């Protein structure tokens, strides 16, 4: 029997939590419907000062499903959602599921080329987007995509009173050639889509990740994956209707989708407010007496450094988790001293439908004395995690290797990418590309990355994608991108550039050039001009030398 299989240590962390959760529901839509049937008046979404109940969202998503069906959207079709954290995101996801369709989450920070790649790769037939994103990005690329149906909406919808300060700069904009989403909700109100058969093996979501092998790939999150890990959140964090979830994680991301949206559908209301702002986040935590949050460590740093946030009452917020980027023990200590709650580490991937590991609620994560790394926790209910060497052999506790994560939360592969699927997945699970070890008490640690992946503010950045943009600058001769330590972002993107003869371009000029060409988190925050980049004998640029 393997060293990992002999794990009596796991029981002490999962007391009262089933080691194997049997999904209660055949699909994610059934999970939502069960909540509606149990209490349709239960709040589902708090959006600034307004609230939508389970029953209201059910009715609105019915109406939207009928509207989409009349426009030719049906089972298996892909519906792309290019929105910030607004109620329309949840309504659209449910409407897609009610048709047996697949929702494709699109990061609202992505720009023209990036959006076009996802729309084409997914074969999206419909797009739901903010009016601002339609004008700034989508309208220019839709003609080069398979999208036939476009619905637009505004972050100002569902605001009945005074416009919140965060939205003061927002304005309604006409979008020719599109349908207004909220107009359709009124037009089709009271209508119901025909029932559809959805089993757990059907794809519910395509969530795109650059992962560890380059171009964007659509992870096929099945209905059963979603149901399983939503119940993991409920069991592991003891969530109930008494809890209130802070929707700070972006909803396009797997954490926002599962820890926020589907967890809210299952058991607790969700607070949404368009996008992260530390003062507004703190205000709404106090207003709604929020109890549960999962966020990147940069969110907690921002809260600690915001004068208005520090004045707010955080006493209700006890279930505090952080994932997506390395967490420094000193940051955990500082947050606890200021706000009174311990930040529990959590670890997972798009391909594991959010968590595969978490620090048990109420426990402090150990710190590895050799590396100073804070543990990412123990495997959650049903997860099996192995540390393997380069040949795939399992390593004993204490030895460093790659994490291979398995269990009911792991997706079957990537959308229409059989070769990438074959190279990344195996019988035991997914090769995460993260390097770490398990200690003799069953806690896991991430100590490095197998490839050159950069994680900036919790977002994954592939250096080659940034370098391709740098090479479009007329004065750039050679370019290489690496991640550098950043006290706020965890890592930030730094570029090293050599110029063509006679060029006078500065690093600041190149930073400015990158604006508008890629998402903000991908852009280099610093560009260093060098005479020559270090290379191997065969001419390959050595990023490892630049990182030194």
Give the % helix: 25-40%
The Cα radius of gyration reads 23 Å
Query: Which stretches are poorly predicted, pLDDT < 50 over at least 5 residues?
Result: 1-6
- Beta fraction: 15-25%
Instruction: Classify the secondary structure makeup into a structural class.
Output: alpha/beta
- By CATH, the topology of the domain at 27-39 and 50-159 and 178-198 is Rossmann fold
Please characterize this protein's 3D structure:
The structure is a single chain. The chain has 17 helices and 26 strands. A hairpin with a 2-residue loop joins strand 22 (454-456) and strand 23.
Briefly characterize the structure.
With 548 residues, this protein is α/β, with parallel strands linked by helices. It is built from 17 helices and 26 strands.
Q: Which terms would index this structure?
A:
about 550 residues; alpha/beta; Rossmann fold; GMP Synthetase, Chain A, domain 3; 7-stranded mixed sheet; 17 helices; about 30% helix
Write the layout of secondary structure elements.
Layout: H1 9-13, H2 28-38, E1 43-47, E2 50-53, H3 54-70, E3 78-82, H4 87-98, E4 102-105, H5 112-122, E5 126-130, H6 131-141, E6 149-153, E7 179-180, H7 181-187, E8 203-209, E9 217-222, H8 223-236, E10 245-246, H9 254-266, E11 270-272, H10 278-288, E12 292-295, H11 297-304, H12 307-310, E13 319-322, H13 329-339, E14 343-349, E15 354-358, E16 378-379, E17 384-388, E18 401-406, H14 418-424, E19 425-426, E20 429-438, E21 444-449, E22 454-456, E23 459-461, H15 463-470, E24 476-486, E25 490-499, H16 507-514, E26 526-529, H17 543-547
Parallel strand pairs: 1-11, 3-4, 3-5, 4-8, 5-6, 6-7, 10-11, 10-12, 12-13, 13-14, 25-26
Antiparallel strand pairs: 1-2, 8-9, 14-15, 15-16, 17-18, 18-20, 19-20, 20-21, 22-23, 24-25
Helix pairs in contact: 3-4, 3-7, 5-6, 8-9, 11-13
């Amino acid at each position: 029997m393997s060293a990992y299989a002999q794990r009596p240590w796991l029981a002490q962390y999962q007391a009262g939590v089933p080691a194997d959760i049997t999904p209660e529901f055949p699909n994610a839509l059934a999970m939502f419907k069960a909540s509606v049937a149990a209490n349709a008046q239960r709040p589902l979404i708090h959006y600034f000062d307004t609230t939508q109940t389970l029953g209201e969202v059910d009715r609105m998503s019915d109406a939207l499903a009928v509207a989409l069906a009349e426009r030719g959207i049906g089972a298996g079709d892909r519906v792309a959602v290019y929105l910030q954290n607004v109620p329309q995101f949840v309504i659209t996801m449910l409407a897609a599921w009610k048709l047996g369709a697949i929702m494709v989450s699109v990061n609202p920070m992505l720009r023209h080329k990036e959006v076009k790649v996802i729309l084409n790769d997914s074969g999206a037939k419909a797009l739901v987007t903010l009016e601002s994103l339609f004008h700034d990005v989508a309208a220019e690329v839709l003609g080069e995509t398979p999208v036939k149906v476009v619905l637009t909406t505004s972050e100002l919808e569902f605001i009945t009173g005074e416009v919140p300060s965060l939205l003061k700069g927002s304005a309604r904009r006409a979008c020719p050639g599109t349908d207004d989403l909220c107009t359709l909700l009124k037009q089709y109100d009271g209508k119901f889509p025909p029932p559809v058969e959805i089993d757990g093996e059907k794809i519910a979501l395509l969530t795109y990740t650059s992962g560890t092998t380059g171009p964007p790939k659509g992870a096929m999150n099945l209905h059963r994956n979603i149901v399983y890990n939503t119940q993991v959140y409920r069991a592991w964090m003891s969530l109930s209707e008494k809890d209130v979830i802070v929707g700070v994680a972006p909803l396009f991301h797997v954490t926002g989708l599962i820890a926020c949206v589907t967890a809210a559908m299952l058991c607790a209301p969700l607070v949404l407010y368009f996008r992260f702002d530390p003062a507004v986040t703190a205000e709404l935590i106090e207003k709604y007496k929020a109890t549960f949050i999962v966020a990147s460590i940069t969110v907690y740093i921002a809260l600690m450094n915001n004068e208005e946030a520090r004045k707010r009452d955080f006493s209700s917020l006890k279930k505090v988790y952080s994932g997506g980027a390395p967490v420094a023990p000193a940051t955990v200590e500082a947050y606890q001293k200021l706000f009174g709650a311990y930040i529990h580490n959590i670890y997972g991937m798009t391909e594991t439908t959010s968590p595969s590991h978490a620090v048990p609620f109420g426990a402090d994560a150990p710190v590895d004395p050799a590396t100073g790394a804070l543990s990412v926790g123990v495997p959650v209910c049903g997860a099996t995690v192995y540390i393997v060497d380069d040949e795939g052999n399992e390593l004993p506790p204490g030895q460093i290797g790659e994490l291979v994560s398995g269990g009911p939360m792991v997706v079957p592969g990537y959308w229409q990418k059989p070769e990438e699927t074959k190279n990344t997945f195996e019988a035991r699970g997914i090769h995460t590309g993260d390097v770490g070890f398990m200690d003799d008490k069953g806690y896991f640690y991430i100590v490095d990355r197998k490839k050159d992946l950069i994680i900036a503010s919790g977002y994954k950045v592939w250096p080659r994608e940034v370098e391709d943009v740098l090479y479009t600058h007329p004065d750039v001769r050679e370019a290489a991108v690496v991640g550098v330590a950043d006290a706020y972002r965890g890592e930030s993107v730094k570029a090293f550039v050599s110029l063509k003869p006679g060029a006078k371009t500065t690093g600041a000029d190149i930073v400015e050039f990158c604006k508008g060409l890629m998402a903000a988190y991908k852009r280099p925050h610093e560009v260093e001009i060098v005479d020559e980049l270090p290379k191997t004998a065969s001419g390959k640029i050595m990023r490892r030398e630049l990182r030194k």
